[in-house]
Amino acid sequence: PGVRFLHASWPVDDLMKLYLTDTAPDRFVLAPADVWIEIRGARAEFRINRLDAGEFIFRQAVQEGRAIGDAAECALDASAGFDPGGALARLVGEGLVAAIFRGADGDEA
C-alpha cells in the first residue's frame, strides 16, 4: 500500500515537484517525453521517483502479484538492458517487499 505507478507522455513529475516545493522558475518548458513514475507514501508525506521503463514494468508487475520471473520477463521485453537481480535487490533494499513466497507451481511471487 502507498505505492502507485504512472506512465505519462509528459514529464508531469517535474511540474509536480515545482508545485510542491512552491518554487517558480522564470521560465518552465514542458516538452513531451515518456516518463515512468513511482509515487510512494501516504497522507502528507510522499516521494515521486522517476524510473526507467524496465524498472517501472518490473515493480508494477510485482505489485500486481505476478511471479518475479514473469515480472522480469515483462521488463526485459520492454528494456533489453534490464538487470533483474539488481532490480530485485533495489526493491528489497528500499523496503518495498513485504514477503516472498512460492506459488502453487513453485515460482516465487
Q: How many helices does DSSP assign?
A: 4
Helix content: 25-40%
Strand residues, percent? 15-25%
Radius of gyration: 16 Å
How many E-type strands? 3
Average the pLDDT over all residues and give the rounded result.
88
Main β-sheet, spatial strand arrangement: 1-2-3
Largest sheet, if any?
Answer: 3 strands, antiparallel
Structural class, by secondary structure, is alpha+beta
- Low-confidence stretches are none
The secondary-structure element order is EHEEHHH
- What would you call the shape? globular
End-to-end distance: 17 Å
What features would you describe in this structure?
There is one protein chain. The protein is of the alpha+beta class and 109 residues long. 38% of the residues lie in helices and 19% in strands. It has 4 helices and 3 strands; from the N terminus they run E-H-E-E-H-H-H. It has helices at residues 12-20, 53-63, 68-78, 84-93, and strands spanning 3-8, 35-42, 45-51. A 3-stranded antiparallel sheet has the order 1-2-3. Strand 2 (35-42) and strand 3 (45-51) form a beta hairpin. Helix 2 (53-63) packs antiparallel against helix 3. The longest helix is centred in the middle third of the chain and has 11 residues, at 53-63. The radius of gyration is 16 Å and the shape is globular. The model has no long low-confidence stretch (mean pLDDT 88).
